[in-house]
Amino acid sequence: MARKPVIRNLPALSGVLPAFKGFSPEDHRGKIIQEDLRRAIANLQARDHKVFYGAREVAEFYGVCIRTVTVCYKQLESEGLLSCKRGAFTRILGDQHSTSVRGIVAIPVFLKGFLEFPEWREFFIDLEERIRRINFVAVFLFFKGGDLAHDDLWHRIRDHRADVVVWLSPPSSASDILLRVKDQGIRLMVVGMKHERLPGQCYQLDFHPSLDAAQSDLMAEGIKRFLVLDFNESDRHLNQWIKTSKMEMQRIRLEPTAGPECLDRIGTDYDQAAIFISSPVVMYHLSQKMPEALLDLACRCRLIVAFRVESNFPGFDQARVGVLDANWTGISAGIANRLHCPETFDITGPQKWIAKWIRDMPLKYGRSENATFSPRAVHDAPS
User: Fold this and answer.
1) In 3D, which of 242, 240, 217, 212 has the Cα closest to residue 227?
2) pLDDT at 208
3) What are phi and psi of 289, to 5 degrees?
4) Helix locations, 151-263, DSSP H
């Protein structure tokens, strides 16, 4: 007799866990699946779901054997998160170790940036973990570029009854939402660049000192030219530094649709020039569309970056680059401290956050072993 279809009325796993895009060879699959399932449990609890996905469905989603998922389910059952009985639905249990919640922290997250920029992703992961420890609940509001053109994101912030909104690098098109949040009496904590003046800005990222330190090192090495790769020339922060630079500067504008030939303008005098890539968008584009050309730059000349790449392309883990390190986890720690003890901070003006120059790091970004989401995070992804 054919098995009757099981109807659980649950959202697709790809919507509940949008960050999962596959495993890398060095990943501990069981550990990642366990952490992802804890996230899924929290997500479904927030939507008042009582049943959970079957082990077979989860195994198909991750492309692993069902035994791997069964082991994960047994661990979650031992933690009091699931009830697994043969012949019955797998059910979600309440958090038996819950404590009083101090508030809801809404965290708007640009979905494309979360998926593409590993430093951003680890910032959000670390921030969620830190605010969970001080009994706040993180609600991640994933949005796409077009969501800011209407009231969708604002309605989601309001519907979650957020007590605090934390926003990393909001675009200029978000200014109306920021003002509405502030006008409604919701505490606003914004991380932006040095030249920006945003409502609720608590940190201003300043890369100038690290650029100055990099320039001094490069000049000591005999490098005379500084080539800046970018998609546009509207970065006021970078333009200001270029005007004061002691080195010969050349800005090379890349077209998003161009191939490796667009780098021919750099020339062949690699010993006398350093290449600087400040934009995470440019780094992602080069690592995905022309990884051979990016690796060639890293091997032939001094490559300076503000964001590294997360790629399994051969050679990226051996290539070395100079990095302007913003210490994103340090910023997340500062935000958590402001949440925990707001009376100890002067919130009348933003605090300058200085990036640090690091001479030698792998081009490939390594994910921290502690970078995992916790069961309390709620993820509200756009449809």
Assistant:
1) 242
2) 85
3) -95, -30
4) 152-159, 175-183, 208-220, 236-244
Task: Give the largest Cα separation in the chain, rounded.
Answer: 80
Distances (CA, A) of 45 to 9, 231, 242, 290: 14, 43, 51, 42
Q: How confident is the model at residue 247 (pLDDT cuts 50, 70, 90)?
A: confident
Contact 57, 73 (CB under 8 A): no
3-class DSSP state of 326: coil
Q: Would you state the torsion angle of the CA atoms of residues 336, 342, 343, 345, taken in this order, to the nearest 10 degrees?
A: 70
pLDDT 10s digits, 76-118:
887 778 888 766 678 888 654 444 678 889 999 988 888 888 8
Cα gap 16→119, rounded to integer Å: 22
Displacement of CA 45 from its chain's centroid (Å) = 24
Higher pLDDT, 31 or 243: 31
Q: CA 172 to CA 195: how far, in whole Å? A: 12
Per-residue CA distances from 48 to 8, 42, 147 (Å): 13, 10, 26
Asked if 311 and 284 touch (Cβ cutoff 8 Å), the reply is no
Collect all residues with Cβ–Cβ distance below 8 Å to 135 and sequence separation of at least 6. Answer: 99, 100, 101, 102
> What tokens does 38 get?
């804890």
Residues with Cβ within 8 Å of 121's Cβ and at least 6 positions away in sequence, in order, are 19, 114, 115, 371
Mean pLDDT across the chain = 80
Strand partners, 138: 105
Distance CA 361, CA 357 (A): 11
| Amino acid in the structure at residue 220 | A
Other beta carbons within 10 Å of 124:
23
State the CB neighbour count (10 A cutoff) for residue 132.
18
- Percent of the chain residues past pLDDT 90, beyond the cut: 12
DSSP label at residue 81: S
The DSSP code for 12 is P
Give φ, ψ of 167 to 5 degrees: -130, 120
